[in-house]
Design goal:
This protein is of the alpha/beta class. The chain has helices at about 70-80, 95-110, 140-150, 155, 160-180, 235-245; strands spanning about 10-15, 20-25, 50, 85-95, 115-120, 190-195, 220-225. The chain has a seven-stranded mixed beta sheet with strand order 1-3-2-4-5-6-7, sandwiched between helices. The radius of gyration is 17 Å and the shape is globular. The chain starts with 9 loop residues before the first strand and ends with a helix.
Length: about 250
């Protein structure tokens, strides 16, 4: 039986061994836990798949969004620590990469460092480009989001849904833009794996090596097709690669 609070931050997407390996996924700005629903079929028996549900979306739609990466991580880490003992692989996409990183630090400080930290479509902590994107006028902001492929075509032309989603996405991007790593933070000791979507307009591949500085446990990088939202392409291959990080 799950010990995660109802309407809390962590959702179970596929149930495995309660004391075994858990893959915990952190979505992008504007994203919800369901973004990783397609991963369930690719997770082998015995492995639990979990995803973070930020406030302001899905079954937490009525809650105000949180625009602080560290505050998000505090909540996620607290819930994970209430679960039965087990090993974690953290996977964060875009904004989620930073929340996953901060969560890994908190788990490490509590004596529960994850087996691996996997970061996707994100520059190293504190190196975000275009920090003022969330301040653009509504029409310009929405067009930018649609161009990146983060808004489904069926939603892109729906003005009512746009008005509901914009405040949440702005809050997430503000969290991303204002985040700074804490001075003097000790590096992790788990391996860090970086995933880059080929042609991603938001992430300069040449800067990704900076993620190596967050750990003493080894850093690797791979490039996948699909741009900023490469996580929707060849999910089985991606999940297998993520799981392989926990065996190193």
């Amino acid at each position: 039986m799950s010990r995660t609070r109802e309407r809390g931050w962590v959702r179970s997407m596929a149930t495995g061994d309660p004391l075994g390996l858990r893959v915990v996924c952190f979505p992008h700005s504007g994203g919800s836990a369901i973004a990783f629903g397609g991963w369930a079929a690719a997770v082998p028996p015995g492995v639990s798949l979990m995803a973070v549900q930020y406030p302001g979306r899905g079954d937490r739609f009525g809650e105000p969004p949180v625009d602080d990466v560290t505050a998000m991580a505090d909540c996620v880490a607290a819930e994970l620590q209430r679960l039965p003992p087990g090993d974690h692989i953290l996977f964060g996409h875009s904004l989620g990469a930073l929340v996953a990183y901060e969560t890994a630090l908190l788990l490490r400080d509590a004596g529960e460092e994850p087996r691996a930290l996997c970061v996707s479509a994100a520059l190293p902590p504190g190196q975000m480009n275009n920090r003022d994107t969330h301040q653009a006028p509504d029409d310009e902001f929405w067009t930018t989001l649609c161009t990146l492929g983060g808004i489904e075509p069926a939603i892109a032309g729906n003005s009512e849904l746009r008005d509901l989603l914009l405040p949440v996405i702005r809050s997430d991007l503000r969290a991303h833009a204002t985040y700074r790593p804490r001075p003097g933070t000790r590096p992790l000791s788990c391996p860090v794996r970086c995933y880059h979507g080929e042609g991603d307009p938001l992430v300069d591949e040449d800067q990704l090596a900076g993620w190596a500085a967050v750990t003493t446990g080894g850093f690797t990088e791979t490039v996948r097709p699909g741009g900023h939202f490469h996580v929707t392409a060849d999910i089985a291959e991606l999940v297998a690669d993520v799981l392989s990080q926990g065996r190193k």
